[in-house]
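anyone seen this seq b4? input:
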Amino acid sequence: GNLAACKEYLALADMPRIFVVQGSDLDADKYERAEVERAEGILVRADFGAADFDARDFTAWLTREALVTASHGRATWEPRMWILDGFASYWARRCGAATPAGQYDQLSLRAAYGAACGFSEQDARRWLSYRERVGQDIAAAVACSGLDCLARTCGEQHCRDFLRAVFRADVPGDVRGAWHEWRAPWPRLLQETCGLSAEELGRQWVDELNR
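predicted toks r here
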């Protein structure tokens, strides 16, 4: 259900089929995936019955995996990987229960830690290095805060238009995808969909994180 809604939200032509099996031998926060024969979808193993299983964390992980497959791996290219990591958490939060008023959710706490470790707009362009420095979960929260900043600055619909432009599924996964990335990097897509430069977003993003 969440992936079907994600497909509609991003206006994707297709999303991979998901096959889920119980993995009682796994830790609650560990998930496994494998490509199904003939690339028919994704096989997922997770311990859904564990008392400390985190549905929101699993949704973020599964959303990311599905978008990697749907984009033929293009979403993992470093120049735009921060958007993939951020959107996975952004979407999982939309699908999950609301955080009680007056409380910081886990994403906000992780983003605050990421800010304390040091973050600049250049880190978005060197995302693999930043992820290695602070850890995948912290980096994803920081990236999510960037999308939050964009939505507050330009409006939810413009943020959605930007995400649709980034994740458009009609771009092949071969050399034509590299050509598309060269011709339409995310800063250009941001300017076209939101009327905002990457530098302007970066300054606001860093300021909000530091606050």
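Residues 136-154 form the longest helix (19 residues). The chain has eleven helices and three strands. kinda curious what u guys think
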